[in-house]
């Protein structure tokens, strides 16, 4: 695999990946953030260049120091020939099979290669799937990359995006001081590693909330290093009041203004969430969201 670290090549890859959306959207979103400050210190590997068949996004080696941190040890994969991914995935120089890790992508056909690779490494694997929900404009992305190069933190929300028409409630950027609140209410969270990950997401990626009468977030939403919108939550006292809808409308408006790609994953059985995001133009993509959680025999999942 070839390490792609030239800005011109990364931009060319970004534009090329747009032609394979939605299957490439996980990797496409990762490359977006890499091209805009690379706040999570990710790196891009391709099997060849400029013609490529496989792209793997992973954290740089110095980021993956905790063998049990599956929030950090995450690999995003897209392949034009997913059935041929086994040999690449078996390579220990590409994936550190001694760690607890996650492989994410939007191609179910990657499963055979992943299972073969994990079997050969005596690694256990758990497969999760969900619906991939996108908007029409995401499918029509032209990869123009018009937004200003630089980190999101440098850009910031426009002032008018903080204004709220609802008395006693105010739309705002989610402050990192509330990472513990987000962590306590995230189904995949509630531990120290997830808290560290959430802090990183809030500090360096777009997030938003609605502050209630006490000045504390009552609804919020965040983004991950692959541009997936998630961790959305409303405190029980403030549910079914339209608060989350207000957050989503302003948040999506901001993302579109900055040409930041975004998408959502929802469990198929979660009909309430599917109906909720449907009102904002989200619909099921032609492929699904997939995650393979892998861990060596001696690292029991927590």
Question: Any chance you could write out the topology, listing elements then pairs?
Answer:
Elements: E1 2-4, H1 7-17, H2 25-35, E2 42-46, E3 54-59, E4 74-79, H3 86-89, E5 101-105, H4 111-120, E6 123-134, H5 136-139, H6 152-155, E7 170-172, H7 179-184, H8 192-204, E8 208-211, E9 217-223, E10 229-234, H9 243-257, E11 264-266, H10 271-278, E12 283-296
Parallel strand pairs: 4-5
Antiparallel strand pairs: 1-2, 2-3, 3-4, 5-12, 6-11, 6-12, 7-8, 8-9, 9-10
Helix pairs in contact: 1-2
CA(first)-CA(last) distance: 32 Å
Q: What is Rg?
A: 19 Å
Main sheet: strands, sense, barrel? 8 strands, mixed
The low-pLDDT segments are 142-152, 154-164
Category from helices, strands and their pairing: alpha+beta
Mean pLDDT: 90
* Strand residue content: 15-25%
Sheet with the most strands: spatial strand order? 1-2-3-4-5-12-6-11
Number of helices: 10
- Secondary-structure element string: EHHEEEHEHEHHEHHEEEHEHE
Oligomer: single chain
Protein name: Glycine N-acyltransferase-like protein
Organism: Pongo abelii (Sumatran orangutan)
Domain Glycine N-acyltransferase C-terminal: 208-296
Pfam families: Gly_acyl_tr_C, Gly_acyl_tr_N
Describe, in plain words, how this protein is organized in 3D.
With 302 residues, the protein is α+β, with helices and mostly antiparallel strands. The protein folds into two domains: 2-133 and 291-296; 170-258, Gcn5-related N-acetyltransferase (GNAT) (Aminopeptidase), CATH 3.40.630. The protein contains ten helices and twelve strands. The chain has helices at residues 7-17, 25-35, 86-89, 111-120, 136-139, 152-155, 179-184, 192-204, 243-257, 271-278, and strands at 2-4, 42-46, 54-59, 74-79, 101-105, 123-134, 170-172, 208-211, 217-223, 229-234, 264-266, 283-296. The protein has an eight-stranded mixed sheet with strand order 1-2-3-4-5-12-6-11. A four-stranded antiparallel sheet has the order 7-8-9-10, with helices on one face. The protein is globular and about 60 Å long. Residues 142-152 and 154-164 have low confidence and may be disordered.
């Amino acid at each position: 695999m070839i390490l792609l670290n030239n800005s011109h090549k990364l931009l060319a890859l970004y534009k090329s990946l747009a032609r394979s959306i939605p299957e490439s959207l996980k990797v496409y979103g990762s490359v977006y953030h890499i091209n805009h400050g690379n706040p999570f210190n990710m790196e891009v590997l391709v099997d060849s260049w400029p013609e490529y068949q496989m792209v793997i996004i992973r954290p740089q080696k110095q980021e993956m120091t905790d063998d049990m941190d599956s929030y950090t040890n995450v690999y995003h994969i897209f392949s034009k020939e997913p059935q041929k991914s086994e040999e690449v995935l078996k390579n220990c120089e590409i994936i550190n099979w001694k760690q607890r890790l996650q492989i994410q992508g939007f191609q179910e056909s990657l499963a055979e290669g992943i299972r073969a690779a994990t079997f050969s490494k005596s690694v256990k694997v758990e497969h999760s799937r969900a619906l991939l929900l996108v908007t029409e404009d995401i499918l029509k992305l032209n990869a123009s990359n018009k937004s200003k190069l630089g980190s999101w933190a440098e850009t910031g929300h426009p002032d008018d995006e903080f204004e709220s028409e609802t008395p006693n409630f105010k739309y705002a950027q989610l402050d990192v001081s509330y990472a513990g609140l987000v962590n306590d209410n995230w189904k995949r969270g509630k531990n120290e590693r997830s808290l560290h990950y959430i802090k990183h997401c809030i500090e360096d990626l777009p997030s938003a909330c609605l502050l209630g009468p006490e000045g504390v977030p009552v609804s919020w939403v965040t983004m991950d290093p692959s541009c997936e919108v998630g961790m959305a939550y409303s405190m029980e006292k403030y549910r079914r009041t339209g608060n989350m809808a207000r957050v989503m409308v302003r948040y999506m408006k901001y993302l579109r203004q900055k040409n930041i790609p975004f998408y959502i994953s929802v469990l198929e059985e979660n009909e309430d969430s599917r109906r909720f995001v449907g009102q904002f133009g989200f619909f099921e993509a032609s492929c699904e969201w997939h995650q393979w959680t892998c861990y060596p025999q001696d690292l029991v999942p927590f």
